[in-house]
Amino acid sequence: MFTKPLYKMTGKELEMAARSGPNPEALLALSVMVAQGWRGCDGDEDRALELEKQAAAMGHPRALCKLGDRYARGDVVEEDHTEAIRWWRRAAEAGDVGAMTNLIDLRESLDPREAAEGEHWLKIAASRGQPYAVNIVNGREPSTMVDFANLSLEEMAARAPAPSGNELTWQVDSVKATFRQMNDFVGLFVERLRAHFFDVHTTTTIDGDGADFPQPDVAEVESLVAEENTIEVMIYAGPLHLQINLFPGDTWSIDASSFEPHPSPPEQTWLKAQIRETMTQVGLRV
After folding, report:
1. Residue 30: per-residue pLDDT
2. How high is the pLDDT of residue 73?
3. pLDDT number for residue 140
4. What is the number of other CB atoms lying within 10 angstroms of the CB of residue 68?
5. How far apart, in whole angstroms, are the C-alpha atoms of residue 258 and residue 203?
6. pLDDT reported for residue 237
């Protein structure tokens, strides 16, 4: 039984967690480490693919979607759009909104059944707040996610004109912090979201370049980040699409953004509370 969160695990620990029992999240985390050669893992794209397949065999929605993405790009496997659609269908049926979005283009198919399938996934993806799907439907902001999920396509199209922007941003705080504290802040915040949402995944970039952050040892990341750099963490949690920007320096600035359809006011309050409580948990001033 592993109690350490995935972001604090080394490559060897992820190996042990993946082997200890049905643990598709550990398999997926390990696949990223293996693909990139992070956390003491040897870079091995073929093995990363096998790890994704193992997670997919357990029915994990994101693993199924990632396999579809691979076939669409010809990434380690031979490019095969038909095979990509097959995997995306399985992922969409398992609840992956990204896979649903990938299937929206079936609306352009000359096959009536595929065109109808594309419309089907468009409606579901939009009802779950996927921004691309929302914009296709009407490009307008719903009042709340719950209200939006209950609309028909016709009702969505009849909404009032869209607001001027699709990004809602708020400054969380400017704090004195170490890299270790900021690393733990991001990791613990994601863990809080994982306790609340069915499927949470993140990607991190430092000035546009992919980075392993948070990670067990932040020394390598610290050596890459200059004061003018930005650490950008994109978080997908169910219908929520969030972005946390960390601006390092003598005093760190933390900004958070969400994208339309925006969380309702109560949801925004909940998210801000989680951020504040996480900051307190790692010893940051609030």
Report:
1. 96
2. 94
3. 53
4. 26
5. 15
6. 80
C-beta of residue 190 within 8 angstroms of C-beta of residue 202:
yes
Domain ranges of the chain: 6-157, 167-281
Q: Give strand pairing partners of 255.
A: 171, 245
| Cβ neighbours of residue 49 closer than 8 Å, sequence gap 6 or more | 31, 70, 76, 77
| Helical residues (DSSP H) of the chain, grouped into ranges | 11-19, 24-36, 45-57, 61-73, 81-93, 97-102, 112-127, 131-137, 145-149, 153-157, 179-194, 219-224, 265-281
DSSP 105: G
Residues of the chain predicted below pLDDT 50: 141-143, 160-164
pLDDT at 154: 62
d(CA 86, CA 91) in angstroms, rounded, equals 9
Candidates 284, 58, 25; CA nearest to 178 is: 284
For residue 193, give the nearest of 277, 107, 99, 106 by alpha carbon.
277
User: Distance (Å, rounded) from C-alpha 29 to C-alpha 214?
Assistant: 12
Q: Which residue has the tokens 């042990």?
A: 16
**What's this model's pTM, rounded to 2 decimal places?**
0.81
CATH code for the part of the protein at 167-281: 3.30.530
Domain 6-157 CATH (choose: 1.25.40.10, 3.40.50.10580, 3.40.50.300, 1.20.120.450)? 1.25.40.10
The residue assigned the tokens 């801000």 is 272
pLDDT tens, residue by residue, 153-196:
666 555 543 444 567 787 788 899 999 999 999 999 999 998 88
What end-to-end distance do the CA atoms of the chain give, in Å?
A: 34
Main-chain dihedrals φ then ψ at residue 232, nearest 5 degrees: -115, 120
